[in-house]
Design a protein that fits this description.
heterotrimer; A mainly alpha; B alpha/beta; C alpha+beta; B: six-stranded mixed beta sheet; 10 helices; C: alpha+beta; three-stranded antiparallel beta sheet; 10% strand
Chain lengths: 324, 252, 400
């Protein structure tokens, strides 16, 4: 066919008369596509709008209070110097350190418990016990954070308070780093256990048999071969776990104690996290005190993002030892 | 006259209700290669796994009969299975190196037994890899991951790993069926060398392979041991009609 | 086996067993705590009464017909009864331990049923009921009967008069009807928005879209939503949906609608993923058979594929309901924390979870009521989870 004839033929097929049902297909496809674009755009909306509100304190005059200095905001050790609603001297520096410190501690405690539980469920426990434990873990995962917060502020706080007394430390009602860590451990444990279990179960049976055939005991096989083979998945569970620990809000704010300055490293010291700071004293809806929460929100998102990037980088390096 | 390493009498095995092995009587001799042949599902792999009690790992398995290793019934109560497995090694159909370095793979068995001395471990790794005809190819990259090796190399690594335990018997479950012809040849040569020091029992799908490398051959069919004897006799003048049919390719 | 190895084995095994029991212990502790402390206040009244207390002032016109009802059998010696007035009062305690006089029975023919409302507001609920408290009764030419004098004093005083100047009674409050209703509205609104958007997106991805970079990009954008903590969604709700609803609806601040829209965004990735999974399970043969019969894409999707995917969508819906009930941080920002008794979707209110938050951040914190609400939440959420598990098993059996 000559090029002219080719053009004519394709134009003809584009503009031919279509079945009514084809039009329906086209319309529906377009409609669904729009809906999908809407779904996909929410993350962008989130970023834009939170950034918009959160940047205000740093670039506007804040109704006469003056600009908040970005550097001192990110590095300072006191939340607010000066009276509320009359000062622009906010800082989250120490809160960032607190948040990371608490999240890491929680992960350090929850990982061994979670991974060992996963090993037990996947390899050691008889079927019925394994099923029961799996259900227990799923139910724990389903408990809303506010209930953990309630449990934390009633039971955990008094536990920590009494524990502190044993050490001769006077704790304000039990609000402390330790209480926060305990609550977070309870909350991220199901995540770690569930994902680690999947990772352990997906280790090939041939590897397990290979180890046993060499005269290793079951326990040696579990720890020397199976857990090492499941490293990648277990690491992934840690990433998810720490994500949850960083983002948890209501439960943490009920047991942390809302420290105004810091950072706090001692187990019985009160502390604060980025999320608990956002929830503090929500009374006004305008002004610097309101906008600054968005700024803290931005900081939180950046912290989570950076943590994820770093951890994923390490995950790739760990995963290099094998591929199955 | 070489020793009987294994003596099997009246071995029966059931997977739940299905009887997979029916009254097997056999022996394995030192310094010989014994081949187990037969069509798919005839029970040869099942039988092999009885010798190092790997069938214990499967639920719903029932066994009766005798498997005697060095005058010990291995299926008696309280028998030290772990120890058995250090003496009776196994190589699997699909190479299954651990996701660790080559060195760690070979050193795994000895380490589990408590050996920590670095020099001794180095020695064991080197000699095992040499015996498995893999040393030259990997001696400069012992710390690299075993997963980077080719299929044939991985299988030789698994053999080295088994050898590192200094077993008496090496069980091989279709060790070359997942490999290309050149790698297969290399392994067959290796088996020929290994039989000077070990008793080898090999399950194989290929009659040609059995004819090439084995001293004794056992022909299994539907859970029964139809014929067992010197390889030359089995392949030239089989006693049973079924054996002859299988060997001449009429079925299987 | 060497002794050293045996010891190693034993130690590792013990540690593993101990670690595995931690989860059980935690679950048990939480459930035990919530059940033990929460069942006290659990009652039908709790679910249907208001949270805030209302005080009513009642007067009475000259009474002609006094009550004829004698003391009912179900009342005890603790209930002091006035036959004339047809009312029984007993002593009780308020939240801070103060003395209360509680109405334990009101006879049908009690003249107190026809009191006159002395309040300014025209309360339709003006009616003395069982469970209410009497704060004081003012008499003509007699000392008033205050609640600190106790129930017996009040009854005795009543018995001696034929009229009174004013009877101050109150509905104690502490009920969660408002929050219960709010939770139901929120669930409904959120699902109405989230399900169609989520399902259509999933259908688009799985049935209609071409696999190109743009589609992949959209998928990535949606995937990133899963890693965002709910408090950030709350900020978004505050910054986007609150102004939006304030502008286009009668709302004047954070409201149930803005909260539902926020929750819908949170649930979107979950619904999309579950729906996609269910769609993927539907064998391609179905689609091909339908197309071969001359149906178009749309008909194939809606008549053949979607019905097969319904079980998965149902599961996702049930799990979403659990998530909605449990969500707190996002709603604190997107709606607010004011507990209300009259509920409108354009107005503020609290869901059950946010109600707990509100109670716990009060001075002093109302832990008993918070625990009771937590008990309700746990029963529903854990029940939903078990239900989903049962359904999944059932559907697995059906399809295998």
């Amino acid at each position: 066919m000559t090029s002219l004839e080719k053009i004519k033929s394709s134009l003809k097929s584009i503009f031919r008369k279509r079945h009514k049902r084809e039009y329906i297909d086209i319309a529906i496809t377009k409609f669904f596509q729009l809906v999908t674009i809407l779904s996909a755009s929410f993350i962008i909306i989130i970023v834009i709008f939170i950034a918009r509100e959160g940047i205000k304190p740093f670039i506007s005059n804040n109704d006469g209070l003056g600009r908040v200095d970005l550097v001192s905001f990110l590095t300072g050790t006191t939340w607010l110097r000066g009276p509320t609603f009359q000062s622009n001297l906010y800082s989250v520096g120490f809160i960032i350190i607190n948040t990371l410190y608490i999240a890491l501690l929680s992960l350090l405690i929850a990982m061994p418990i979670g991974v060992l539980s996963a090993l037990f469920i996947a390899k050691i426990a008889p079927k019925r016990l394994a099923g029961f434990l799996r259900t227990v873990v799923e139910l724990l995962a389903a408990i809303p954070s506010i209930v953990f917060g309630l449990f934390g502020s009633s039971v955990i706080l008094s536990m920590v308070y009494n524990l502190a007394k044993l050490f001769g430390v006077q704790s304000p009602g039990g609000n402390s780093v330790l209480a926060t860590v305990l609550v977070l451990v309870m909350m991220i444990l199901p995540t770690i256990t569930a994902l680690s279990e999947v990772a352990i179960r997906s280790v090939g049976k041939d590897i397990e048999e290979g180890s046993l055939a060499l005269g290793a005991t079951k326990t040696q096989t579990h720890f020397k071969v199976i857990l090492t083979s499941a490293k990648s998945g277990i690491f992934a569970s840690a990433i998810l776990g720490i994500g949850r620990a960083l983002g948890e809000a209501t439960a943490v704010s009920l047991v942390a104690g809302n420290a105004r300055s810091g950072p706090s490293f001692g187990f019985f010291e009160i502390t604060s996290t980025l999320t608990s700071t956002m929830l503090q004293g929500l009374k006004e809806t305008i002004g610097l005190d309101y906008d600054i929460r968005f700024s803290v929100g931005i900081v939180l998102m950046i912290v989570i993002l950076i943590t994820n990037i770093i951890l994923n980088y390490f995950k790739k390096r760990i995963g290099q030892v094998y591929v199955k | 006259m070489s020793q009987d390493v294994f003596k099997i009498q009246g071995l029966n095995l059931w997977y739940d209700d299905f009887q997979a092995l029916k009254g097997i009587d056999m022996f394995i001799k030192q310094n010989e290669v014994t081949a187990l042949i037969g069509p798919s599902g005839c029970g040869k792999s099942t039988f092999l796994r009885c010798l190092n009690r790997m069938n214990d790992l499967i639920d719903d398995v029932k066994i009766d009969g005798q498997v005697v290793y060095h005058n010990q019934h291995i299926y008696q109560k309280n028998y030290d299975v772990i120890n058995l497995r250090t003496k009776v090694g196994m190589v699997f159909q699909k190479p299954n190196p651990f996701p660790m370095s080559i060195y760690d793979n070979v050193a795994y068995g000895p380490r589990c037994q408590g050996l920590k001395n670095k020099e001794q471990l180095n020695e064991i790794v080197e000699s095992s890899l040499k015996k498995a005809a893999l040393w030259k190819e990997v001696k400069d990259r012992l710390k690299e991951s075993a997963m980077e090796l080719s299929g044939g190399q991985q299988q030789r690594l698994c053999i080295a790993r088994a050898i590192a335990m200094e077993p008496e018997v090496i069980l091989m479950d279709e060790p070359t069926s997942a490999l290309d012809p050149i790698a297969t040849l290399k392994i067959e040569e290796l088996i020929n060398d290994l039989k000077e020091n070990y008793a080898i029992v090999i399950v194989t799908h290929s009659m040609q392979q059995a004819a090439r490398i084995s001293d004794k051959t056992a022909f299994f069919l539907m859970g029964e041991l139809i014929e067992f004897g010197d390889t030359d006799f089995i392949f030239s003048t089989p006693k049973h009609e079924q054996t002859e049919n299988y060997i001449t390719g009429r079925f299987g | 086996m060497s002794n050293k190895r045996k010891r190693y084995d034993f130690i590792m095994k013990t540690i593993t067993y101990v670690a595995s029991s931690v989860a059980i212990i935690i679950l048990f502790m939480i459930v035990f705590f919530v059940v033990r402390n929460g069942t006290n206040l659990l009652s039908f009244d709790l679910l249907t009464s208001d949270y805030h207390s209302h005080v009513y002032n009642g007067g009475i016109d000259p009474v002609t017909d006094f009550s004829q009802t004698s003391k009912p059998d179900h009342l005890t010696d603790e209930d002091y009864y006035s036959q004339k007035w047809g009312i029984a009062l007993s002593d009780g305690e308020g939240k801070q331990g103060e003395e209360r006089v509680i109405v334990s029975f009101v006879a049908e023919d009690s003249p107190l049923n026809h009191m006159v409302n002395r309040n300014d507001s025209n309360d339709e609920d003006f009616q003395i009921k069982e469970g209410y408290i009497i704060q004081m009764i003012k008499f003509e030419g007699r000392q008033s009967a205050l609640e600190i004098y106790g129930a017996q004093y009040m009854i005795n005083s009543l018995e001696e008069v034929d009229t009174f100047r004013e009877l101050v009674f109150a509905e104690v409050g502490g009920g969660i009807r408002g929050s219960l209703l709010t939770t139901l509205y929120t669930i409904g609104l959120t699902l109405i928005v989230a399900l169609p958007v989520g399902i259509f997106t999933a259908i688009y991805f799985n049935e209609f879209a071409n696999k190109n970079k743009f589609t992949q990009f959209m998928r990535t954008l949606i995937d990133t939503l899963t890693g965002v903590p709910s408090i950030i969604f709350g900020l978004m709700g505050l910054a986007v949906f609150v102004p939006l609803t304030v502008r286009y609806t009668p709302a004047t601040s954070g409201n149930i609608l803005s909260g539902s829209l926020t929750l819908a965004v949170i649930l979107l990735p979950v619904i999309i993923k579950s729906t996609e999974e269910s769609l993927k399970v539907v064998p391609d043969d179905f689609r091909q058979a339908s197309l071969a019969l001359g149906a178009n894409h749309t008909q194939t999707t809606f008549k053949v594929v979607l019905p097969s995917a319904l079980p998965g969508i149902l599961t996702a819906t049930l799990l979403s309901i659990g998530r909605i009930i449990g969500e707190s941080a996002a709603l604190i920002f997107a709606v607010g924390t004011a507990i209300k008794d009259d509920i409108s979707i354009f107005g503020k209110s609290t869901t059950l979870s946010v109600h707990i938050w509100s109670l716990l951040t009060d001075e002093p914190a109302n832990i008993p009521l918070a625990t009771t609400i937590a008990l309700i939440i746990l029963m529903v959420v854990l029940g939903l989870n078990l239900l989903v598990k049962l359904l999944s098993i059932k559907f697995m059996k059906k399809f295998s």
